[in-house]
TrEMBL record:
This is adenylate kinase. PANTHER family: NUCLEOTIDE KINASE. The keyword Nucleotide-binding applies. Monomer. The gene is LOC103488737.
Length: 294
């Protein structure tokens, strides 16, 4: 029930108030040299956050987190919701890939970690996230949908220390579908659009369809510009799935214990899952109104 009340706030987003989330506090916390001393850090964060925490969480933009295994579709659904709710979609995986493709000092270090399917250190992630949040703040954005962060208990604790996350959506899909989805993922090198060339059809023992996910094919403009993520090979995806279970699944429990976790089993591809997700989030009316206004 607590969770339902939290995201009922998403029903009235027409007038978004400026976010009470203190980007500056998060940036300072993440970039603080005292990061090595967690005890000090927590006390600093708690004292800062008490002044930045909203008394009425519904009077500001949503602050949501998307959790889920590699390939589940966090990016797809987080990005759709970010457009619907008018909040930035911040994917730490995208931040890592941007840094990788730059000639910045971290690029070669990141290439080695990502190519093994391992997690980047919390410090590097905090640094990339801090920069992204500062850019967001400069554009006057507020609220967020985080995707791919937090991925460790420490990241979750730090985030919890600086701001109130309203809701954590945990997307779930069968493991054989996850691997197939990662292997079929394609990205347009020009516009960054995400597609999937695999048709997933899983049947039960009696041969009845259990899960069907149609391919998400690119428009003609993108078709000749598709690339594959370098970490979407079978061996690396399996390693990412293993690390997710070991390191990131405890984050689900972290939020479950705080009454913030919404479990969502994807019933199929986007056409089947999107309306159900909107329903689970009480956002059908908003989606309907926006579609009608467009
Ligand atoms: N919060 C994070 N903590 C540590 N490493 C991260 C984090 N977010 C992204 N990464 C790094 O970036 C890579 C790509 O992230 P992402 O696109 O979210 O992958 P996935 O498809 O595995 O969910 C990860 O395998 C990891 O190396």
């Amino acid at each position: 029930m607590a969770v339902l009340n939290r995201f009922a706030g998403a029903r009235a987003p027409a007038t978004f108030y400026s976010s009470m989330f203190n980007y500056y506090a998060l940036w300072k916390a993440f970039s603080s040299s005292s990061l090595s001393s967690e005890v000090d850090l927590k006390s600093i964060l708690l004292s800062r956050s008490s002044s930045s925490r909203p008394d009425r969480p519904m009077d500001r933009n949503v602050q949501w987190v998307f959790l889920g295994c590699p390939g589940v579709g966090k990016g797809t659904y987080a990005s759709r919701l970010s457009s619907l709710l008018g909040v930035p979609h911040i994917a730490t995986g995208d931040l890592v890939r941007e840094e990788l493709s730059s000639s910045g000092p971290l690029a070669s270090q990141l290439a080695e970690i990502v190519s093994q399917g391992k997690l980047v250190s919390d410090e590097i992630i905090f640094d990339l996230l801090s920069k992204r949040l500062r850019a967001s703040e400069a554009k006057g954005e507020s609220g967020f949908i985080l995707d791919g962060f937090p991925r460790t208990i420490r990241q979750a604790e730090i985030l919890e220390g600086v701001t109130d996350v309203d809701l954590v959506v945990n997307l779930k899909l069968r493991e054989e579908a996850l691997l197939a989805k990662c292997l079929g993922r394609r990205i347009c090198s020009e516009c960054g659009g995400n597609y999937n060339i695999t048709c997933i059809e899983i049947k039960d023992k009696e041969g009845r369809p259990e899960l069907y996910m149609a391919p998400l094919l690119p428009p003609p403009n993108c078709a000749s510009k598709l690339i594959t993520r370098s970490d979407d090979t079978e061996a690396i995806v399996k390693e990412r799935l293993r690390i997710y279970k070991e390191t990131s699944q405890p984050v689900e429990d972290f939020y479950r214990r705080r009454g913030k976790l919404l479990e969502f089993d994807l019933p199929g591809g986007i056409p089947e899952s999107w309306p159900k997700l909107l329903q689970a989030l009480n956002l059908e009316d908003l989606n309907h109104n926006q579609s009608a206004a467009a």
